[in-house]
Amino acid sequence: MTDIIVPSPGESITQVQVAKWLVTEGEEVEKDQEVVEIDSDKASFPLTAPEDGVFRILVAEGEIVPVGTIIARIEPLKEEQKVKQDKPVASPEPLSKSSMVSKKRSEEVKSGTRISPLAEKILTEKEIRKEEVFAAYEGKRIGKKEVEEYVSQSKSSEKQSVISGSRNEERRKLSMLRLKLAERLVAVKNETAMLTTFNEVNMRKILDIKEKYNEVFKNKFEVGIGFMSFFTKAVTLALREFPQVNSMLDGGELVIPDYVDMGVAVSAPKGLVVPVIRNAEKLSIPELEIRIKELAVKARDNRITIEDMKGGTFTITNGGVFGSMMSTPILNPPQSAILGMHKIMDRPVAVNGKVEIHPMMYIALSYDHRVIDGRESVSFLVKVKEFLEDPLKMEMEGEDPVLMLLGL
Questions:
Q1: CA separation for the pair 132, 154 (Å, rounded)
Q2: What are the helix (H) ranges across 165-305?
Q3: Which residue is catalytic, options 3, 301, 373, 400?
Q4: What one-character-per-residue DSSP string does 67-91 give?
Q5: pLDDT at 63 over 80
Q6: What is the average pLDDT value for the chain, to the nearest integer?
């Protein structure tokens, strides 16, 4: 017999949640088959069967247990289980009509419930399943009166249902990831002086670059041109001029890194996660696109690790993928600022004294006012806007700045 023990997912994590059993009690499992999903307050990960055998569940789904707990066991297969697949299964002989009647009567005797021939006829005419009536009058004799009573109650219930609709409720335990997220978000609101400043960006030039060069870019790098890479590049360049936006409080000290570890908020099946791109300031547009795609795939497949999410000095979140027009993103502690992207929408704007339709996006910078002054936050956001509206400012070397920017 082999025990399945909860491993430590990382430092400082002492308990986890048994999120979802992927097999059932008594099921035969194979070595390396995924059998359970485990949630910690930072990430989710699966556990696999160490050997073939019969699976025994010891902890209920949703329970929170300490690291090191035995949550399941695998019993060795018995000889008859190993060979049972090779043995033909005999088909049951069909019951004769008299046998079926006898079986029905024996079931009625066993349950203590009787039904008269007239009542049974009425049920057949009204296309009502006999089992439903048996359940309502268990242990009693069912006659015409009981059937009429059951039909009347059913009609009343249907009428009430039409009037009020469903009143069902579902209760489920929150995952540890969701509980930790809730705790952190409340702490941010209570422990920081968070403000948000807004601006808007004309996305015309980035869209033109994407339309013209996307196929060539994809053929060379096996990934398309996205918006997140442009935003990440613009932010890293703007942080050179406004390094305090990239800082964080540590007790009575202000920590200002000379690097940018960019957190990219992505939606995963278990909730929002923020994997980090290390030293994003050193990466080109193609390198950023490749890294962003890798992290997005890992998040989608629930393979984001704690190491992927450690650290981070600044975060970008994109509510536009869900259709958000404008929002106030909440800080990702201990960081002091977060940039929110939103949906691109065609809107009338004034260009050289004329009204034109352009693809516009609202952007929002939430920041901790204890660390960042209003002048710095607004100036930083304006600088990001300038880079996005004229992407060639991000790369001025070479004969063709666009090709240099895209690494083509």
A1: 11
A2: 176-191, 204-221, 227-241, 285-300
A3: 373
A4: TT-EEEEEEPPPHHHHHGGGSPPPP
A5: yes
A6: 84
What CA–CA distance (Å, rounded) separates 407 from 34? 41
- Contact between 195 and 231 under an 8 Å Cβ cutoff? The reply is no
Token pair in block for residue 344: 């691109």
- In this prediction, residue 99 carries a pLDDT of 47
Q: pTM of the predicted model, to two decimals?
A: 0.65
Over residues 229-266, the pLDDT tens digits come to: 999 999 999 999 999 999 999 888 999 999 999 999 88
Q: Is 340 helix (H, G, I), strand (E, B) or coil?
A: strand
Going by the DSSP 8-state scheme, the letter that residue 250 receives in this structure is: E
pLDDT band at 177 (very low <50, low <70, confident <90, very high): confident
Residue in the structure block whose two tokens are 């809107």: 347
pLDDT at position 163 over 80: no
For residue 328, the SS3 value is coil
Give the whole-angstrom CA distance, residue 331 versus residue 185: 8
Tokens linked to 146: 């009981």
Look up 208 and say whether it is catalytic.
Answer: no
Q: First vs last Cα of the chain: how many Å apart?
A: 58
Do the strands 354-368 and 64-66 form a parallel or antiparallel pair, or are they unpaired? Answer: unpaired
Choose among 38, 72, 37, 31: nearest CA to 55. 72
Q: Point out the catalytic residue in the list 301, 369, 390, 400.
A: 369
Distance CA 115, CA 107 (A): 12
Q: pLDDT tens for residues 87-108?
A: 555 555 554 444 444 445 444 5
Tokens representing 13? Answer: 């994590």
Q: Which domains occur in the chain, in start order?
A: 2-86 (2.40.50.100), 97-160 (no CATH), 181-406 (3.30.559.10)
Q: Is 369 part of the annotated catalytic residue set? A: yes
Residues 6+ apart with CB under 8 A from 45: 9, 37, 38, 302, 303, 305
